[in-house]
Amino acid sequence: MKHLLKLSDWSKEDILDTLNLADQLKYEQKHGIAHHHLAGQTLGMIFQKSSTRTRVSFETGMYQLGGQALFLSSRDLQIGRGEPVQDTARVLSRYLDGIMIRTFAQQEVEDLAKYGSIPIINGLTDYCHPCQILADLMTIREHKGSLEGLKLCYIGDGNNMANSYIVGGLTVGMKVSIACPNGYKPDPFVLDFAKAYGENFSISDNILEMAAGADVVCTDVWASMGQEGEAEARKAAFAGFQVNDAVMAAANPGAMVQHCLPAHREEEITAKVFEEHANEIFDEAENRLHAQKAVMVKLMAANRR
Ligand code: CP
Ligand code: NVA
Fold first, then answer.
1. What's the DSSP call for residue 212?
2. Which ligand is nearest to the CA of 261?
3. For the chain, what is the mean pLDDT?
4. Strands of 256-259's sheet, edge to edge?
5. What is the pLDDT of residue 80?
6. What's the rounded Cα separation, in Å, for the pair 34 and 28?
7. Mutate to test the pocket of ligand 2, among 54, 222, 224, 230 (most ligand atoms within 8 A of CB)
8. What number of other Cβ atoms are within 10 A of residue 216's Cβ?
9. Mean pLDDT confidence for 286-302
10. Which three-class secondary structure state does DSSP give residue 67?
11. What is the pTM for the complete model shown?
């Protein structure tokens, strides 16, 4: 594995090896054991969208690994004025040891990898959010002890998070169910990917049916970054697609909740369910740091100049 462009490029072993390393790095960090695997290296972080967690966890993570991170807003880069991604990729490859990019089109991330010569990490596109799903899988494994055979139910928009839960969950041996309104289904490529997993995958607009027996209940905002203009129409379309007491009663006793954040209380999740599961949700946010450090070590440590 050279990049993290989308999870379907990674095998089950790639994912599990990365989660194991993430656990180890978390242990070392908590016990004050230095792990400067990327000493002297620089990660460029290109942001075309806002971020709290992704920016801070990558920047802090790179520092803890002995390297440094550069925050590169597309508003300030020439790419924001139309410099082609082919040229940006070739230039940045001459300075940096890795790039994390958050943008709209998945193709832009794929093109950076195609034209550049350093590892590229997808920090969210409209299509997927692989770093977030690695953090979620790490958190689920921490709380539940294993992943294989657990049922993960996602309720809400068939967006980047839904796409990544399907690919990541099925790849590591989980059952994945998706409850979404018609017209807001996950990406066709992902639905095609899921076909190979037979009964381990289900999708419907019946929320309680999808949540039945779930070990993990996940959700995300109804309007993603870039969809602000559709927010009102989406509120109507998603009314009822909410993680609430009824959903948690349908899930297995002791089911956990994951939300990538930011959360909109009383829209995709009630404030009550959010607060009852805040510990799991903020563990998930913390694990962005550890999971991404593992990704960076896996992809960048071998490429030391
Ligand atoms: N979950 C997540 O990616 O958060 P940010 O948008 O704050 O980076
Ligand atoms: N689906 C959300 C996730 C934010 C982390 C978005 O793309 O805005």
1. T
2. 1
3. 97
4. 201-204, 175-179, 151-155, 216-219, 256-259
5. 87
6. 7
7. 224
8. 27
9. 97
10. coil
11. 0.98
Segment 250-259, tens digit of pLDDT = 999 999 999 9
Burial (CB < 10 A; 0-12, 13-18, 19+), residue 115, is middle
Rounded Cα gap, residues 46 and 55, in angstroms: 10
What's the mean pLDDT in 273-288? 98
Closest CA to 158 of 179, 174, 133: 179
Average pLDDT on 141-152 reads 98
Q: State yes or no: is 220 an active-site residue.
A: yes
Angle between helices 188-195 and 160-171 (to 10 degrees): 20
Three-state secondary-structure class, residue 204: strand
Tens of pLDDT, residues 1-40: 899 999 999 999 999 999 999 999 999 999 999 999 999 9
Structure tokens given for 150: 């657990």
Residue 260 Cβ contacting ligand 1 at under 6 Å = yes
pLDDT tens digits, 228-267: 999 999 999 999 999 999 999 999 999 999 999 999 999 9
The Cα 136–Cα 297 span in angstroms is 19
The token pair at 22 is 């993430």
132 close to ligand 1 (CB < 6 Angstrom) = yes
**68 is known as an active-site residue:** no
Write the Ramachandran bin of 254: left for phi over 0, alpha for psi from -120 to 50, otherwise beta.
Answer: left
